[in-house]
Amino acid sequence: MKDEKVLDVTKDVKWVGILDYDIVTFDVVMETKYGTTYNSYFIDADKKAVVDTAKNRFSETYLNKIKSVCDPAAIEYIIINHTEPDHSGCLDNLLQIAPNATVVGSGNAIRYLKDILGHEFRHLQVRDGDTLSLGNKTLKFIGAPNLHWPDSIFTYLPEDRLLFTCDSFGAHFCNDLMFDDLTGEYDDAFLYYFNVILKPYSKFLIKAIEKIRPLEIDQICTGHGPILRSTWKQRVAQSEALSLEALKMREKRRVFIPFVSAYHNTAILAETIAEGIRSAGEIDVHICDIENTPFGELDAELTRASGIIVGSPIINQNIILQIYQLFALINPMRDKGKLAGAFGSYGWSGEGLKLIESNLANLKLKVVSDNMFIKFTPHKEELEKAHAYGLNFGKLLLEQEQIPETECS
Ligand code: FEO
Description:
Oligomer: single chain
Radius of gyration: 24 Å
Largest sheet: 7 strands, mixed
Bound molecules: MU-OXO-diiron
């Protein structure tokens, strides 16, 4: 179906974003069963402005929408709140038809865009509190870093009482009615998006929410999913509560034990190690056979964990595919310094130990030294060893200072 939809957000601000019903996986790892939208906005002020663009593969549709609302040569500013290519992907093509435009963003955003575009462009770097006159309207920029890249800002348009937040308060949810009072309920999509994208940066989201609290807002114009005109207060409050809960959870020690098991031997070790950890003191332990676990759930577990112990059998001198997928979900910026371990069962030779240990170390986790792989079936002696390993891991975790939330630079 041809997407020509343009919507009035206010009399002078139009949604010119893209509806992507067909996407099934976002950023390679994020399930998007409800599709998504790449929201872009046109501000019809004395000086015309665009806020954010869309994914590159929708350039033709996107540029047609821009042309339908203005003469692109009249666009003076393109504000890029966040440079990830789902929002900046059409920028280069837009600049070709809008040669008079100045790109506006944070210092990090301008630096990233130079690498993304591969050439110089007219730009304006803005800081927290800066304003930009559009003649009869004003843009105010709010520093909101690390949501979820170091480049992120919010943009406020006081005359229309609109706040543009890009990824924050968004969701991967596609419905062409676009406004939250028309699209129907999408709470699970909102929660999933929060958990995967924003929760690791809860401290920064709380700081950003403090900054927007005094603003007079009618609508929050997100970068993905519905425009929030009836539920923005609830979504901000929900995001704040979830962020506070996430920070509180981080205060409590929690060990995640993801494993795969071919003949239940690695599974028995996982359970015994977990018992050992619990016997060390006040520690939550979550064991998970990850053979069929959705990536989003794994990511949420990795985020919450202060310790991670990875278990695998060895097949043909290698560990299992799902373990490599798990490594891909470990985020060194978020997980750096977390205590980590390795265990498993093998038949011929024990390559798994080094394979898991080296991957965890390369991902900047702090790998303990007494990791254990056993031959075939764990019997009494191996089970005692596994319990002692868990106990020792638990004690080390209780001695270790909690990892502070990552400061991105
Ligand atoms: Fe929707 Fe972080 O890009």
